[in-house]
Amino acid sequence: MSDLIESVAGGIATLTLNRPDRLNALSAEMLDGLIAALQRIAVDPDIAAVILTGAGRAFCAGGDVKAMAARTDDSMERRAAELRLRHQLILLIRQSPKIIIGAINGPAFGAGLGIALACDLRLAAESARFGTAFAGVGFSGDFGGSYHVTKLAGPAKARELYLLGEPIDAREAHRLDLVTRVVADGALMTEAQTLARRFAEGPRLAYAYMKRNLLAAETASLADVLDMEAFHQARTGMTEDHREAREAFVEKRKPAFKGR
Questions:
Q1: Helix extents (H) in 130-239
Q2: 166 Cβ neighbours under 8 A, 6+ residues apart
Q3: Which residues pair with 113 in a beta bridge?
Q4: Closest-CA residue to 177 (of 197, 198, 158)
Q5: 168 exposed, middle or buried (CB, 10 Å; 0-12, 13-18, 19+)?
Q6: Which of 1, 69, 109, 225 is deepest in the core (most CB within 10 A)?
Q7: How far is C-alpha 98 from the geometric centre of its chain's CA atoms?
Q8: What number of other Cβ atoms are within 10 A of residue 214's Cβ?
């Protein structure tokens, strides 16, 4: 059985972490599969959005501590180099031209929290729980969690969540802007698919350029962002989708976007 299940339908790719017996703790096969899938999806013109979720009752419990305990012969340099390669996953999610929706169906801890927070939109089931978890196993943190918690919830809350390691529920995560919406457990995938379909039927090139603008806005100067916005606005103004939107506006009808 594969540690990652991938399916595609109607312009939407669904990636399911599939180690339910281990609460979808990360494995080499799962991480390699996620990286390969996101690299492929990024250049696939038939896919507009991705739903990332977990099988069973968890989203992702983070690293596989049991597997870590079995590793005794690696040097610090080798482990760091391997982790840097795995961290490609976070950059792929953030930099993908596709909209990545995290459908957080259950616990998201440690590296699993980092992966969830990298997604563009994060839908949490009411029963989902979130935690850094690193202090409990003597680790300092990985997979971009410290970056995203600080950006989303602020530095003071990030210190609290990391240093104390106390988990929070979905409602508190929403209050802290760690998740976009909280939905009933049974409605999670329906809501995620509804959002993904909206992006599949929308102006795909415009969404891709929006992501570039928003990513740059986190670190670039205002002048640099304005320059980027000017170029991207001019580029999207030349697309078939923009022309269709103009015509639909005049004709008082809903535009039929084609992603071109």
A1: 145-153, 155-164, 170-175, 188-200, 204-217, 222-236
A2: 131, 160
A3: none
A4: 158
A5: buried
A6: 109
A7: 10
A8: 12
Say which residues have a Cβ less than 8 Å from residue 214's Cβ, sequence separation at least 6: none
What are the φ and ψ backbone dihedral angles of 255, each rounded to 5 degrees? -70, 150
DSSP character at residue 184: -
Cβ-proximal residues to 5 (8 Å cutoff; 6+ apart), any chain: 14, 15, 16, 18, 55
Exposure of 235 in the CB half-sphere (CA atoms within 13 A):
17
**C-alpha torsion angle, residues 26, 86, 158, 207 (rounded to 10):** -100
pLDDT in tens, 13-54: 999 999 999 999 999 999 999 999 999 999 999 999 999 999
pTM, full prediction: 0.93
